[in-house]
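Case study B.
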Amino acid sequence: MTAALEVTVARQIGEFELDVAFTVESGMSVLFGPSGAGKSLTLALIAGLIRPDTGTIVINGRVVTDCARRIHVSSQGRRVGMVFQDGLLLPHRSVLDNVAFAVRQASGRRARRAVARSWLERVGAEEFADRRPGSLSGGQRQRVALARGLAGDPALVLLDEPLSALDSAVRRELRDLIRAVILSSGVAAVLVTHDAEEAEELGDVVIAYNDGRVTGRRIVERPARPEPQPGAPESTESA
Amino acid sequence: MTGLVPHSWLNSLGIPPWVWNPLSVSLHAAIEATIVVAVVGIALGYVLAKGRFPGRGAIETVFSLPIALPPTVVGYYLLTRMGGPGPIRNAEIRLFGHPLTFTFTGIVIAQIIESFPYCLRFSRTAISVVDPRFEQAARAMGLSRWRIALLVTLPLARRGIVAGIAMSFGRALGDFGATMIVSGSVPMATTMPIALYNAVFYGSHEQAMVLALVQLGVALAILLGVSRLGKVRPW
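Model:
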């Protein structure tokens, strides 16, 4: 079976040196480690936002970076969805437009908006479709960011500390939602966190990072229970 | 140049031709100059803000010279280059059939050069302070470079850009030195500042007072507009 993601990269930034190699299968994989360990830098390399000094990145069997062969597929061409720590939703466009911009598999504004609306429904954010991101709470923004990350029919979704700016109640709620939506979509995901509890709750595999190196890899044992479903009842607090 | 508004309207409003004609020329020339300045200034501002190439600072300095130069110096160079013998004058004659000095087009060119630095510098600054993470997010979404510029960068920089365009429009509308040297005081190519100068020169103090008041009103309207843009809630 082809791995969803194969990463072998090195990149020097000032004094910091990242030199990591790991493989990700389907499901949720978590890069876990302290701040400054190189987790977010790894995501930026995978997304094609930064080029590594050496190494290769393969997504679903497709080589998107190979420094030796001078291959560097642009971030636009990688079919990678991203969810950022603070959402990074475009403040001047509606929630629906924000998600629709990411839709690549449909042509025409109406078709893209229809796909976007269906993703907003899946993350429980359809009621915010016509609002501007500035009027949403942090949790609501991250729901929209999750929809945007998935709406482009990506081969891989990267989530860069998507819950770290939220309070604990909303984090718990969104944790379940993220895992349910990612697993039900069938797309492989890599999530970055420095929170041990979050890594255990969200990951099928946890890859430990420290000081620019992979220091361990562990498969998370889960009790046999149904995975949470997207759209399941939410807590009373507005997320 | 007086065709912006039908004369019958002006008569019914009681606006005399000695106010409307120069005002019309001023507005018409400033609008044309501002359209050119906006298109070129925003594009060059984007290139200077986003590009990484040697000579960026030199380009910005050269295009910003009219801010520091007395307008009469700009007018002098325009007069001697556009009106004096040489390749520029020859090109004018080939394209337009006559030199552009002492014409309406000459006024527009003078105003473009005088007002260009404001739009350029405001645009460049506004574009360079847009949070690059929004552009990164857009790249990750698969948007092309053009779509990122049009849908992300320029809208996020729009307040600074609009302020720059307003400043350029105000500068074009108020230009005296360069316009005076390039166009003189040719009938139907006389702007408001030149009309005011003429009124004072020929001792028509009532006309001068009215022309000054009209320009004061226009300037106030522009500044209020810019101030309002600054107060609008971001999104």
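Chain A has a mean pLDDT of 89. The remaining cases will be described in the next quarterly update.
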